[in-house]
Amino acid sequence: MASHYQSPYLREDSSSPRILMKRLREIMAEDNSAQARLDEITRAIAFTMIADVCSIYLRRVDDRLELYATIGLNREAVHQTRLDWGEGLVGQVAKTGQPLNLDRAPEHSAFSFRAEVGEEDLQSFLGVPILRTGKVIGVLVIQNRQQRLYREEEVEAVQLVATILAEIVAGGDLLEEADKADLEQLLQKPEHFHGKPVVSGVVIGTAVHHQPPPPAHKIFADSVPHEMQRLEEGLASLQKNIDVLIAKNEQLSGVSREVLEVYRLFAYDKGWRKRLEEAVLSGLSAESSVEQVQNENRKKMRTVKDPYLRERIHDLDDLTRRLLRILTGQGNGDQLELPDEAVLLADSLGPAELLDLDREKLRALILAEGSDNSHIAIVARGLDLPMVVDLPDVVERVHDGDQIIVDGQSGEVHVRPPAETLAIYQSKREFFAQSQAELAAERALPSVSKDGVAISLHMNAGLLVDLPHLHSTGAEGIGLFRTELQFLIGNNLPTSAEQENIYRTALEQAQGKPIIFRTADLGSDKAADYMRLDRETNPAMGWRGVRMSIDREGLMRPQLRALLSAAGGKELNILLPMVTTAEEVLKAREIIDKEIERARRNDRLLPTKINVGVMIETPAAAWRIDDIARYADFLSIGGNDMAQFFFAADRESARLSNRYDSMHPAFLSFMKMVADKARYSGKSLGYCGEQAADPLMAMALIGIGIYRLSVPAPSIGPIKRVIRAMDVGHFRQWLEPKLALESRSLRPQMLTYALEQALPL
Ligand code: PEP
Ligand code: MG
């Protein structure tokens, strides 16, 4: 029977959604009671969808789903039938937040028979959630006696109606006063989420989205021609903005140019315009039409696999937001105003975007995606910004201005917390501050193990704001200064003089403690728009780090000049990133020598000593570390990149972030080989990957013989405590056989060891 069925939505005139929107608008314009409107709406939906039944269930504050209106079911059941959350098919739709499309509903395991509603002879069932800011506030159901699956187009049409219904319900026009309060309470209910902790710290602050949603606006058009005119004007002004943007950035090439051109293509795209116009013709306001089309795009985005296309749909999303800002009179507002104690929410964020924000007000970061080795995580750690990732729901469900608690240690996030939760976190925050103070009090203690092994503890940095931590943590020096971060702030490449200023200030503030300046590790995700880098399919394995530096002396030489000058009369440590072969070191050294020669010719005060180190962060460099060591003064393992290449697992991938543990014997035994070879070469070897921030991993590295660690500032104190309590000799004996014999991550066993030895983790 199903195959003969012709979807009404697919009829030649394909005007049903438009007619339905028009009808909804009329219903809302009539001076009727809330109940009468709801009844009319169900009737209109059933009529358009040729359904035998249409019902609307709304969620009450006790999370039960109440039948609010129906056409086709027993009218007496309205406001009487209440389903528990998850009960029956309707409850399933609410619980999962997903549509449910069944041709034989009574046979479904979740089907629950309610005599009072009278659905005995109904076979097919389509339920879709009514979602408001990501939260299920009700369920819209259509049912038919016939056995058939609803077609995709029909499901989409009912979903479209449900989004409009959500707006109307939330707007309050469909509810009696008491129910409005109920809904408000539901939407304002405290919520609790659990994400992946990345940077620890407790923050109680105010939520703000990186891309704020547009303000409330009307849903239906009072006058279709007027809304059409607003849409046309909005589009014209959007096109003009993009044209101006392109004209202003005439000099751009590469990716940035391409992005802008794509924006222009979209802004003038006839298909997009047509879909927007159709939505307005169906009776929606210009803003709602834009949102409607955006929803459809997002839905498409979820099914697109090709990363390039996904990016493009993101672009269209951005363009949509711009259009909405124009329509709602928010202008082009590119600058984000942060509230005090801001907790920023974003789907994803690049290091440059983070550095653009007002750091005086920013307190914590929540991302829908992300992993703990990503560059954004590294920058957040450097800025001491508590951060939790992997929370897509929070980003969608939190409103700007909501009170929000972020616990960067456990990954807990509480939104609109009740007083008791607030009190718990206030004391946790105090406790955290107190333990930080205790750690600071231990900063002068030597970092020497119980059996007398001295471990050199340095900190990672990248901006001048990091420098005060050098003294507050008692770090021996800066083991990794990521100079490229400076290149990501601002709109231009910093001049040699600007760079010199920063390096000089850093050296002054270090007050004699050594700093290892890594030459700019640009490329991959560390690129600013102005650099006009070409798009690469695998940027992490692309033209980056020393590869770029030796190909572009114009980039490397001004930086070397700045470093040589800033360190005049002092010792200078330079570190080369992303080295793969010894030739690259030789080439980089040639460039360094050229700059030394130039400084000499110009009678500049030279550093007293120049040490050139090499990052060991590719398996090739690790394998031939003995060869590379001949041309290096010191070596430093970049564990973040090394692990990514060793496990062939993208360090930025949220999916893979928990999959391979750096404490797996495969990685640790490889690191031991590197450490042993480095020792024979006589060159000092350190480890500056973020994994060492974890005291257990720091222990493992010490166990395999790496005695110089560079970690984020907040980890110095906790690691030093463990070092002071451990017996390195005893631990090594315990660890070594396991490197060869075990097949799984050593983490659980190491945790047990640490507990048995009463190590303060
Ligand atoms: C690393 O790869 O471990 C490293 C320290 O460098 P970055 O994280 O900046 O790539
Ligand atoms: Mg690296």
Any descriptors?
761 residues; alpha/beta; Beta-Lactamase; Glucose Oxidase, domain 1; Enzyme I, Chain A, domain 2; eight-stranded parallel barrel; 28 helices; 46% helix; disordered N terminus; binds phosphoenolpyruvate; binds magnesium ion
How would you describe the overall organization of this protein?
The protein is of the alpha/beta class and 761 residues long. The chain folds into four domains: 8-187, 2-Layer Sandwich (Beta-Lactamase); 191-212 and 336-434, Phosphohistidine domain (Glucose Oxidase, domain 1, 3-Layer(bba) Sandwich); 224-327, Enzyme I, Chain A, domain 2 (Orthogonal Bundle); 454-717, TIM Barrel, CATH 3.20.20.60. The chain contains 28 helices and 22 strands. Strands 7-14-13-9-10-11-12-8 form an eight-stranded mixed sheet. An eight-stranded parallel barrel has the order 15-16-17-18-19-20-21-22, surrounded by five helices. Strands 3-2-1-6-5-4 form a six-stranded antiparallel sheet, with helices on both faces. Strand 10, helix 11 and strand 11 form a beta-alpha-beta unit. Helix 17 (496-510) runs parallel beside helix 19. The chain starts with 15 loop residues before the first helix and ends in a 5-residue tail after the last helix. Bound molecules: phosphoenolpyruvate and magnesium ion. Phosphoenolpyruvate (PEP) is lined by residues 378, 480, 482, 521, 617, 638-641, 688-689. Magnesium ion binds next to helix 23.
